[in-house]
Design goal:
By secondary structure, the protein is α+β, with helices and mostly antiparallel strands. Helix content is 33%, strand content 33%. It has helices spanning 2-10, 25-28, 84-98, 138-147, 155-168, 174-182, and strands at 18-22, 36-53, 64-82, 105-112, 118-124, 149-150, 153-154. The strands form two sheets. A five-stranded mixed β-barrel has the order 1-3-2-4-5. The chain is globular, with a radius of gyration of 16 Å.
């Protein structure tokens, strides 16, 4: 999948920089030095805490959650630019971070920014994926926030860091703020 994604990027033209759309942890911990960051809005997809995590933010016995970018609605996040001459060297680390298992569907999405539109690589999740949670009740979110923890910490910490990372860029996510209020984590 990475080879296919790189081939698609190469077909965009010589010397084309790679844009990546960050909607959760890529906003607050991209793990690569972006040459440029822009607040960006994607139409046709939304950020949601609807993907099971049985290693990073939970365990097989007590699954946690991570964010997904799913069809419908819109999402404000960050478009991160990786210069053309760094893409080949940086892509394996980005891929290992986002796609350790082929759970996400990499897609090229149009991002609207104040400086103009860019086509960015985004890691999306299909509603048909076995990792998609489907609808969760408020009580289920409370239980997950209270108990689910994995290799990289708790689901609650991940959700909190994402909200604070978004707010640091002036992006408000009312749905996420509501979920964190369920955990008595925010006023």
């Amino acid at each position: 999948m990475m080879a296919d994604t790189l081939a698609q990027w190469r077909s965009m033209g010589p010397r084309t920089d790679l844009w990546v759309f960050g909607y959760a942890s890529l906003v607050w911990r991209p793990e690569f030095q972006a040459a440029e960051q822009r607040i960006a809005r994607v139409h046709g997809h939304h950020r949601c805490l609807h993907m099971w995590s049985r290693v990073n933010r939970g365990t097989p016995e007590r699954p946690g959650l991570v964010f997904a970018l799913m069809r419908g609605g819109s999402c404000t996040g960050m478009a991160l630019r990786l210069p053309h001459d760094e893409v080949e060297a940086q892509m394996p680390a980005l891929w290992a971070r986002e796609m350790p298992n082929p759970v996400y569907d990499p897609k090229w999405l149009l991002c609207r920014t104040d400086q103009g539109p860019v086509r960015a690589l985004a890691f999306t999740l299909s509603a048909r994926s076995p990792n998609h949670t489907g609808p969760l009740s408020d009580d289920r979110y409370r239980e997950i926030f209270a108990h689910s923890c994995g290799r990289y910490g708790s689901t609650l910490d991940y959700a909190r860091q994402t909200l604070h990372g978004l707010r640091a860029h002036g992006i408000e996510d009312r749905t996420l703020a509501h979920l964190l209020r369920l955990a008595n984590d925010l006023p």
